[in-house]
Design a protein that fits this description.
The complex is a heterotetramer, with two copies of chain A (about 150 residues) and two copies of chain B (about 120 residues). Chain A is α+β, with helices and mostly antiparallel strands and about 150 residues long. Chain A has a single domain (about 10-150), classed as Histidine kinase-like ATPase, C-terminal domain (Heat Shock Protein 90), CATH 3.30.565. Chain A contains four helices and five strands. A five-stranded antiparallel sheet of chain A has the order 1-2-3-5-4, with helices on one face. In chain A, helix 1 (about 20-35) runs antiparallel to helix 2 and helix 2 packs antiparallel against helix 4 (about 115-120). Chain B has about 120 residues and is an alpha/beta fold. Chain B has a single domain, classed as Transcription Regulator spoIIAA (2-Layer Sandwich), CATH 3.30.750. Chain B is built from four helices and five strands. Chain B has helices at about 35-40, 65-80, 90-100, 110-119; strands at about 5-15, 20-30, 50-60, 85, 105-110. A five-stranded mixed sheet of chain B has the order 1-2-3-4-5. Chain B is globular and about 35 Å long. The model of chain B has no long low-confidence stretch (mean pLDDT about 95). Classes of the chains: A alpha+beta (about 150), B alpha/beta (about 120). At the C-D interface, helix 1, helix 2, helix 3 and helix 4 of C face helix 2 and helix 3 of D. The complex binds adenosine-5'-diphosphate (2 copies). One adenosine-5'-diphosphate binds near residues 54, 59 and 135 of chain A. The site of one adenosine-5'-diphosphate has 17 residues of chain C, from helix 2 and helix 4.
Chain lengths: ~150, ~120, ~150, ~120
């Protein structure tokens, strides 16, 4: 019987590139425990990895002594993931990458992380830092939803 | 899941006998993979190499910084009028590459054999 | 380049059977990041899983509201794993399972967890609770050691 | 990595034509797998079934509580003078089963074919 009625896991990684894979594995394992299909686990893995990379790079400026905190919470039919950093965060909606502009150099080659997060999970919210000085991104992935189609 | 990216290069011929240079990646393709991805492309002769196959069959981890390096290769290849094909992506990364529009500049094939048969 | 010079990850799971797999995945991912071979990663996975099961069952008596804390720390050439629970812990050395006695029913079929932990990692220490009331088991797995041979 | 254990049963014949009952496990084998492991063994007829193959090829997670259930099956089979063979363990769990002494009561084979050829 898959676990689908509560329980939360927290994982804290140093702000160093490479460690996003550790948080990604933790999240993947949690999603498998809940009975998510393999393709949805892959969606979650990329979303969590990109959210952690942003927290490591933009939130914590690669300061390995500052942790990125990842809270994974099981709710009926869904897994919520919050990725916390010590930066100011952001509330801007991600822009859709324009490959034609990237090819001409009008747009940077990179800058696809937030777009991918939004495209791969069922719900996403960027929450800038309040008075506490902690910002986070909150993702939700649902059990009953099919994987996104190719756009 | 390795932190290192590795690349190997091989000269192949398509079903119609055209030469094709395969770059096969293994390990991780991320922000630390510039040498493996862009470097191995730059090392090819722009005049001699007309068709390139980027194979991701052996890749265990791929993120958006790694995909950005692939886009840099596509940019340079596009300027040099080279054809780039991509093979060996998992269904998930086939979806991701399609989402970011890479399919407008490179054709995706399930594996090397399929690429060689079609090019 | 494998990461081999510091950095620690903490993962906290609820005391509920099944979640040991989440901590196991986190530990496995960390060991892969450090460049451990596949067979040593498997050794670590079983050791971490067994240590978490013991913490969940014997330390925290399956009270899902009490977390098991797993600290993973990278040291030069080795990965240290501490699995904390809220019980009294233990300092006894694990007994080697006697399959003949198990077959005759003189010994319980189960009771192999601590033995496996000790047999699979390079160093292990059971630390009973001090004044803080927190006990833990500490495992170390070394990069330069080969996997144990079959006994 | 699934929380559920599943088991399927099949009647096979060894290379020498002797009947053998295969119990194939998939998913997790842990403390919650009593029905799948002990239950499926108990459901077999002790008088009719003389040789049993426990196949772990499809098992994704196995821990010491699961191994204890396998030992319970070995105990009962030993009493009933049945021969038990085990197949499909990964190299890691081949090592673990050997460490705990299971090889004194069951022979381990890399896969079902090897078991059928030898039994
Ligand atoms: N956690 C964060 N904290 C602060 N700024 C962020 C965060 N995540 C994203 N951003 C901002 O949004 C921009 C776009 O992010 P993203 O789409 O992931 O692309 P990239 O990281 O490649 O620039 C980043 O360049 C950064 O300015
Ligand atoms: N974290 C712990 N806290 C308290 N007691 C423990 C702990 N780990 C192990 N023990 C004790 O040691 C015994 C042997 O543990 P183990 O070898 O793992 O076998 P099992 O858990 O199957 O009994 C347990 O039954 C328990 O009494």
């Amino acid at each position: 019987m898959p676990i689908n009625n509560g329980g939360s896991v927290e994982v804290r990684i140093p702000s160093r590139l490479g460690f996003e894979k550790v948080a990604m594995s933790t999240a993947a394992s949690m999603a498998k425990l809940m009975g998510f299909t393999e393709d949805r686990v892959e969606d979650l893995k990329t979303a969590v990895s990109e959210a952690c990379i942003n927290a490591i790079e933009h939130g914590n400026h690669l300061d390995a002594s500052v942790p990125v905190g990842v809270m994974l919470s099981i709710f009926p039919g869904e897994l919520e993931v919050k990725v916390h950093d010590n930066g100011d965060g952001m509330s801007a909606a991600p822009s859709v990458p324009d490959i034609d502009r990237k090819m001409t150099g009008e747009e940077e080659a990179r800058g696809m992380g937030m777009f991918l997060i939004q495209a791969l999970v069922d719900e996403v919210q960027w929450v800038p830092s309040s008075t506490q000085g902690k910002s986070f991104v909150r993702l939700v992935i649902r059990l009953n939803k099919e994987s996104e189609e190719c756009s | 899941m390795q932190l290192t990216s590795k690349v190997s290069q091989q000269q192949l011929a398509t079903a119609t006998g055209k030469p094709l240079t395969a770059l096969r990646f293994t390990g991780d393709i991320s922000s630390t993979s510039r040498d493996a991805v862009v470097g191995s492309y730059v090392a090819l002769s722009t005049s001699a190499v007309k068709q390139i196959l980027l194979d991701f069959k052996g890749v265990e981890y791929l993120n958006s910084s790694g995909i950005a390096l692939v886009i840099e290769v596509l940019m340079a290849a596009n300027k040099a009028a080279q054809i780039v094909a991509i093979s060996g992506l998992t269904p998930h990364f086939t979806k991701v590459f399609t989402m970011v529009g890479i399919t407008r500049y490179a054709t995706l094939y399930p594996d090397e054999a399929a690429a060689l048969a079609s090019l």
